[in-house]
Predict the 3D structure of the following.
Amino acid sequence: MEFDGITEKLGAHEVATWLRRHPVFLQQFPDLAQSLVVPRESGATASLASYQLEILREKNRELNQRLHELFATAQDNERLAVRAHQLTLALMKQTSAADTLRAMAAALAEDFHGDLVRFVLFHPVAAIDDADWLQVIAADSPRLATFRDIMGNPEPICGRLHPDKNTLLYGVRADDVQSTALLVLPGFGLVAVGSCDGNRFYPGMGTLFLRMMGEALAAALQRFQ
């Protein structure tokens, strides 16, 4: 501390004495109050101020953690929004239904980190032969009976599917798939992204971008009907 050009080197006792003479000091510098380490009292009674300070610190830590989580989520959503926009542009540039489906399959595998991408179309598509990721099954076929309960659902379905659904979608790989993101495209068919991780796709997860991608695919395929 300096007085009129004279520098005095203060020790802990001098600081404590000065603070006792200036009890409102921490009101002027609340950030300092939060950074001080307050010892917990071991007696039968506890300092209310110490308890309140500890609660405030804990809330501050929780808020900081929540802020980091929100920031990370915002970054993920921004990346997905950019990818969804890029996919829409890419689909609109394709010159055939086959190329459109190939572009969609590649985007789903990359953006959703799925192990298997599968399409079930109600109508055949030229120039795609023996593709293990594509089946053509008429909408009224008995083979699709297990999907009747979701055919009118416009929202993507995420989670573990019934074994019958898995078998039709993934064939010999059905037992490997533990969770799926399934999208119904009215008038076109089904799109599925399967994962070997049972926690990859789960009920209640955000599906906005998946639905947007499905709508973009349906609009792109509409050009070739």
